[in-house]
Design brief:
By secondary structure, the protein is an alpha+beta fold. The chain has 9 helices and 10 strands. The radius of gyration is 19 Å and the shape is globular. Bound molecules: 4-diphosphocytidyl-2-C-methyl-D-erythritol and adenosine-5'-triphosphate. Adenosine-5'-triphosphate binds next to helix 1 and helix 2. 4-diphosphocytidyl-2-C-methyl-D-erythritol binds next to strand 1, strand 2 and helix 5. Its EC number is 2.7.1.148. GO terms for molecular function: 4-(cytidine 5'-diphospho)-2-C-methyl-D-erythritol kinase activity; ATP binding. Pfam families: GHMP_kinases_C, GHMP_kinases_N.
Length: 290
Amino acid sequence: MRQLLDCPAPAKLNLFLHVTGRRADGYHLLQTAFQLIDRSDLLHFTLRDDDAICRVTDVPGVPEESDLIVRAARLLQAEVIRRTGRTPPGVDIAIDKILPMGGGLGGGSSDAATTLMALNTLWQGGLSQQELMDMGLPLGADIPFFLFGRTAFAEGVGEALHEVDGPDCWYLVIEPGVSVPTAKIFSSEHLTRDTPLVIMADFSRHYAKRSQLGGFGKNDLQQVASRLFPPVAEAVEWLGAYGDARMTGSGACVFCAFDSEEQVDAVLAKVPAAWNGWKAKALERHPMLS
Ligand SMILES: C[C@](O)(CO)[C@H](O)COP(=O)(O)OP(=O)(O)OC[C@H]1O[C@@H](n2ccc(N)nc2=O)[C@H](O)[C@@H]1O
Ligand SMILES: Nc1ncnc2c1ncn2[C@@H]1O[C@H](COP(=O)(O)OP(=O)(O)OP(=O)(O)O)[C@@H](O)[C@H]1O
């Protein structure tokens, strides 16, 4: 029988995101905290009789050849051939796409990370977690985090990761109905790139001390995204009536932390119909690693 594997690809929130500089190649230096949450895309892997890698679900706006899932699978396949001299079986990959594209939730990066983990297992590739992280980074700056799989304080372009405790809470997330291209935000002339460095202990102290869940720091990309995409600003303002609402990543999604599921449910019931709102619980570990 052909082997089949069903695997989740969870979303992340950037609890804060500071732009602290710019590298010579134009990429930005960041400090951020990544938090996994329990809302996920779902990927299904079925081994084939030949060596082809095929995406068997249509993803509107993303041609198969540029899909991060397919690109990640091909990179790993080539590396397994290089290391072992054998060609692993091809794979059909189906995807239930739940996470919005251009949402700041890292959906495409998480799909790619899950693909690397699943195929490394199915193909018995034997790559270490660090080797998979190094392979993923050129495909997307968030991919190493998803492979790391734990709440992380991150520096560099997001690849220098340190495990940290995040708040154990519920989140309300609003999709404001726009898709934000990450490159457009980073290239804006209005982006500030000189936020002073913080240290990880500041982040840890903040969450250890606070009885309520106001966030640490800020998201430097939020002002630029709000200016270019007004629904982002509207969602921050609306959700801000209930707590410290902020944008994740380069947008568009906006989130706010709550102590309990009941509190989230009460606010969720009031989310304007124009937006898609949902709740999610903070995850300590990636479900593929537990
Ligand atoms: C904003 C974050 O989501 C925070 O977690 C990530 O840094 C973005 O990660 P991503 O969507 O995987 O982005 P990538 O596909 O790596 O980069 C898209 C584009 O954004 C810009 N970019 C991205 C990351 C970074 N640290 N500096 C940048 O300037 C680059 O122009 C790049 O070509
Ligand atoms: N499997 C995939 N799923 C989603 N997007 C993909 C995928 N493969 C490639 N992409 C491309 O990547 C772009 C960004 O998608 P993604 O869902 O990762 O955005 P995001 O949540 O804003 O990410 P980030 O927080 O990393 O900026 C999409 O607009 C799409 O063109």
